[in-house]
Amino acid sequence: MNDHAHDLASVQAATERLLTAVGALDNAAVTHSSRLPGWTRGHVLAHLARNADALVNVLEGRPMYVSGEAREADIERGAPRPLDAHLADVRESAERFRAVCAAPADWSRTVELRNGVTDRAVGVLFRRWAEVELHHVDLGIGRELEDLPAEFTEREIDFLAQRFTGHRDVPTTDLTADDGRSWRTGGGAGGGPVVVEGAAADLLGWLAGRRDGSGLRVKGGALPALPPL
Predict the structure, then answer these.
(1) Are 171 and 190 spatial neighbours (Cβ–Cβ below 8 Å)?
(2) Which of 2, 45, 172, 196 is the most buried (most CB within 10 A)?
(3) What is the mean pLDDT of the chain?
């Protein structure tokens, strides 16, 4: 179950780790390719800042983004900036998000994100935590999925397994981490159950579209092709 104070503290800790790591870069490094196709590290940092502001919009009852086109334009416009500008933007937008989350509110209320997706307000904090942790890895500056907090990894696998549950293109799929934790997802397509086993970091990487699943063990069929997030 999401805990507001705990998740807010986790977002803050993840943000500080990211800012410390990015602060060790230089202007040239920001222009290098990230691990996300077509995006430089500057694109990732610009996205992180605008995502914080977008989630403030969600919590304050406004549309998450003006439009998909505006979202992309903001990222493209911000990507080429120098390191100091990125650091300031990520830090200041994170503080705006923290301030909204620290204010008294009904955290059980329903809020709307993009494309009609809804969640409880408290769930927005975990969504932000996931953005910061996964995009820190996407920057390709030394942090790997194996370095993420165990609690986060378990909760994100659970979140993504729920997201794909019932998806029409995904057969019933049983996931088992090497430490014995298990999840079930898919079920909307024929076939299965397919059994997928491996390290928690590899399961997370596959579900989140960060790894191709080659490090996983698969029984009962081929590794399912997951839809994009």
Answers:
(1) yes
(2) 45
(3) 96
Starting at the earlier edge strand, list the strands of the sheet with 217-219: 182-185, 171-177, 189-198, 217-219
Count of Cβ atoms closer than 10 Å to residue 68 Cβ: 10
What's at 177, amino acid-wise? A
Residue 64 scores a pLDDT above 60: yes
Which tokens belong to 176? 């088992």
Joined tokens for residue 15: 């943000």
Strand partners, 219: 195
The closest of 142, 151, 157 to 208, measured between CA atoms, is 157
Output the DSSP codes for 81-140.
S-HHHHHHHHHHHHHHHHHHHHS---TTSEEE-GGG-EEEHHHHHHHHHHHHHHHHHHTT
Per residue in 202-216, pLDDT (tens digit) is 999 999 999 999 999
- Residue with the two structure tokens 């977008």: 54
**pTM, rounded to two decimals:** 0.96
220: left (phi over 0), alpha (psi -120 to 50) or beta: left
pLDDT at 1 > cutoff 70: no
**What dihedral angle (degrees, nearest 10) is formed by the CA atoms of 204, 189, 183, 9?**
50
Q: Measure Cα distances from 60 to 17, 50, 110, 113, 114 in Å.
A: 27, 15, 12, 11, 14
Spatial separation of the C-alpha atoms in residues 116 and 58, rounded to whole Å: 12
Residue 67, classed as helix, strand or coil, is coil
171-177 and 189-198 strand pairing: parallel
